[in-house]
Structure prediction request, 69 residues.
Amino acid sequence: MSLTIDVDLPADLARFRLPSAVASRLQSLLDRQDAGSVLTADERAEAEGLVDLADLLTLLRLRAERARS
Prediction:
């Protein structure tokens, strides 16, 4: 089964990025983890969700760029 979603593409593809405050929060969590700190279960879930969101936005941006080519 496949699913098709119609999306109006914004003129500014940079909008398909995490807002700076959200990206900073994700980077902070990842930096703490890389430094050897153990994240709480809630922090791990937050980081995983933000990574998933960043991946989705990247995919949308790349698809939008391809559609415009």
Remarks:
- Residues 29 and 59 are 22 Å apart (CA to CA).
- The chain is about 60% helix and 0% strand.
- The mean pLDDT is 88.
